[in-house]
């Protein structure tokens, strides 16, 4: 449980660092904002599913607006923090059933979902950094080891 919680502390830290960097750059790179919005939308979808609510109408890809991203960064952190507050080690094996936006039903353990969300975001934050470097902007250091320092 401590490991997964630490992963989410890192996730929240990394999201905040990416957001602050994207806000500060003058280059209005639509694809970078779209990727960041996707990370945040996916987090919202997964926490909705973990809480037993219907996520099928939530967008996975949407137009990225700074204000919406700012709200999702805050909201997702609060929701996952609350979720972890009430989560016991034995809950990690609990199976979550959900229906995706295409109407297909899936079942995964809480552990698998939490691991997926953490890795999914890191993958896309890497894509964001790659795109930043391509336009001459220093990538954001979101390495886990930097976080634990």
TrEMBL record:
InterPro entries: DinB (IPR007837). It holds the Pfam family DinB. Keywords: Metal-binding. PANTHER family: DAMAGE-INDUCIBLE PROTEIN DINB, SLR1116 PROTEIN. This is Damage-inducible protein DinB. It comes from Paenibacillus allorhizosphaerae.
């Amino acid at each position: 449980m401590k490991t997964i919680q630490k992963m989410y502390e890192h996730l929240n830290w990394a999201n905040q660092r990416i957001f602050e960097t994207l806000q500060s750059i003058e280059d209005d790179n639509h694809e970078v904002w779209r990727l960041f919005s996707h990370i945040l939308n996916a987090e919202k979808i997964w926490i909705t599913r973990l809480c037993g609510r219907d996520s099928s109408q939530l967008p996975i890809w949407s137009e990225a607006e700074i204000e919406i991203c700012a709200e999702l960064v805050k909201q997702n952190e609060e929701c996952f923090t609350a979720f972890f507050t009430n989560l016991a080690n034995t809950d990690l094996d609990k199976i979550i059933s959900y229906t995706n936006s295409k109407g297909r039903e899936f079942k995964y353990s809480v552990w698998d979902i939490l691991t997926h969300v953490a890795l999914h975001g890191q993958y896309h934050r890497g894509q964001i950094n790659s795109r930043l470097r391509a336009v001459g902007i220093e990538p954001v250091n979101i390495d886990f080891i930097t976080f634990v320092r």
